[in-house]
Amino acid sequence: MTERINALRASGELPRFIAVEGPIGVGKTTLARRLADTFGFDTLLEQAEDNPFLTRFYQDPARFALQTELFFLFQRADQLRQLQQQDLFTGPKVADFLVDKNRLFAEVNLDEDEFALYDNVFRHMLLDAPAPDLVIYLQAPTGVLRQRVQKRGHDFEQRVDPGYLGRLNDAYTRFFHFYDAAPLLIVNAAEIDLVSGEADYQQLVGELLDIRTGRHYFNPRPLV
């Protein structure tokens, strides 16, 4: 696998910007870190733990949704601005988010008037993020997401309502049903181990190295 990655890097065919996406608990940050280590890329991570409103949002969503979403929007704008000033977009990266996900969460979390305000701010900020060379969408049933959220034990996530996870999961499904801004690999992450399972992970890397355009689906092949 290493020889193939090096050959693609030398020929300029290795994707230079990979974005991993999916709902809460699906494992996107861990996969992003592992891919970065495999390819020798830098990571661009969401840093949700820096949001001071997030714990309060999970305790009282109606009251703190707007503050939470605006903080994430401004955080994303700062990340992109810093990267552009430092010219770091010239280096290869793996991100655990798409900028589009900010608006997706806002649609789920805000009422009609709040979303109109948020959308006005969003449009005026004109976030200028480059299109990824490849997007990996990790999907799993809501019950699996809930189990993984509980297992990883982040205090601010333990109050996550299963109904909210379900609505968010549905929003991701609708979003990626129409997504065509970059090559897309849809991964069934429900019953595979992309964190420590070496066979599943190596199959995934082999699959993504072949993608240049279009929409693709990944389920690991059973080992013979």
TrEMBL record:
Question: Pfam families from the xrefs?
Answer: dNK
Keyword flag DNA damage? no
Species annotation: Alloalcanivorax marinus
UniProt-recorded name of the protein: Deoxynucleoside kinase
Supply the alphabetized keyword list: ATP-binding, Kinase, Nucleotide-binding, Transferase
Q: Where is the Deoxynucleoside kinase domain?
A: 18-207
**Binding-site residues, ATP:** 22-30, 148-152
Q: Which InterPro entries match?
A: DCK/DGK, Deoxyribonucleoside_kinase, DNK_dom, P-loop_NTPase
Gene Ontology CC: cytoplasm
The keyword ATP-binding belongs to this UniProt entry's keyword annotation: yes
Give the GO molecular function terms: ATP binding; deoxynucleoside kinase activity
CDD domains, sorted? dNK (cd01673)
Q: Active site at which residues?
A: 96 (proton acceptor)
